[in-house]
Amino acid sequence: MEENKRPLYIPYAGPILLETSLLNKGSAFSEEERTAFNLDGLLPHAIETIEEQAERAYKQFSHFSSDMDKHVYLRNIQDTNETLFYRLVNDHITEMMPIIYTPTVGQACEQFSDIYRRARGLMLSYPDRHRIDDILNNSTRHNVHIIVITDGERILGLGDQGIGGMGIPIGKLSLYTSCGGISPAYTLPIVLDVGTDNPLRLNDPMYMGWRNKRISGEEYDQFVDEVISAIQRRWPNVLLQFEDFAQKNAMPLLERYKDKLCCFNDDIQGTAAVTVGSLLAACQSAGTELKQQTIAFLGAGSAGCGIAEAIIAQMVSEGLSDEEARDRVYMVDRWGLLQQGMQNLLPFQQKLVQNQQKTQSWAGEDGGVSLLEVINNAKPSVLIGVSGAPGLFTEEVIRSMHQHCEKPIVFPLSNPTSRVEARPEDILRWTDGQALVATGSPFDPVEIDDVSYPIAQCNNSYIFPGIGLGVLACQAERITDNMLMASSRALAQCSPLAETGEGALLPPLEEIQEVSKKIAFAVARAAMSDGVAKMVKNVDLKQTIDAHFWHPEYRNYKRTSF
Ligand SMILES: O=C([O-])CC(=O)C(=O)O
Ligand SMILES: [Mg+2]
Fold it and tell me: Where is this site: Important for activity (predicted)?
């Protein structure tokens, strides 16, 4: 806060200052500033406060009826006046998060070229591969601490969106700022434009990306390598978040870079951390432990397997052996239950197969074991959906689960809303209100017989802003498994249901900044005990986190001498 009160010395004036989104204050420039920065006559007479500006902006926002129009409107404010944008979003976080983030951001990626207005972030296209250093040098942000990078190949559950994938890094970084207090000046979204295999994009005359099939194999690996080396040269201490890469690349990229730089994959590790945190809260509220649960997954991709491994690690920390923990986790994908001897499993899937001796009598006529057969035989107490395929938690699946388990925990996590495995109201109806439901996209509370059931949004947005804040506060050089586990436990401690026995499984979004600070604290402590933090031990960590937390308030400007 103190930081915010000091004047800022800036070298721009006139229209350029009004066009610089990080510095623009619009009608809030004071009389002295208008004179000092040659703004007289460029702005309406009235000098407004940020509250007055936010009131007008909210009225304009409210006049739009479609979520896409609202998204375009907010993005425009973000591109012209970032301070006002974050003030507005922070004041209306529950209403606006679904507009700047999931689910609307999915549509914004699909329609990226139709709604395009202004440049934001960096677009690194394959034909420019020999000029990556120059391009990074063109960034309008110089002091970058957090980058979210995607190649647009697996955008939420919507598949390949090519350059349109840029909507995701922009949206994620908006949450780093509004939920995690990271100054927008420190953030940079990057899209790797390596072509697209989506015919809808390739054949769209409006498409703004490199109109080419995706590159792959060695060409792709080499390109990513060149980009990451250039990022390391330009910003050696940056936190790099991999986002929405296709399965074939997500895990290999993480494996390749996790010990070389400060990075994580949000879809694998962020989703895992929020899911484990939510499960810990659910167990705590029921007076049990995670190690007592039996868990079935629909979706055995890198996200599902990432969550499964984090659950296993937690069960082991609660006292199970690795083998006992793995025995309790059932991974089902489109070919059925992952079992020993199955062909074509990826390395991370092989570690999660079930023993065939146990499961051979469960098999259906085709020899495979379906989700329903897993439900009826393994009798799971937890069901997690990360399949990207809507509707697969059928009435029969949920009712069968409920037959074996009085209070099932059901998390249909696929995003956006159109991809959800089952709608919360259906799950609650099929289980007579007994299920504990959390989803990846936001859902309104479900009303059944005058009882209101809040639906927690088990989305990585509860985790990554706090991780970023913690990493910056303690100057972490790596992201370790202990840091991720610490984030899950810190989140569970913020659960109203776990702490009080009633209310929602996860805290309301209005409290997300406080939640992020608690997560940041736990993450930084874990980084320090793992020896990956540069911060010296006797510095007050809470104070450092508070000092790093950026608030959307205008600062006083003074002119530098040129
Ligand atoms: O962005 C979200 O809402 C969650 C996420 O990372 C994904 O689905 O890829
Ligand atoms: Mg993602």
Answer: 267
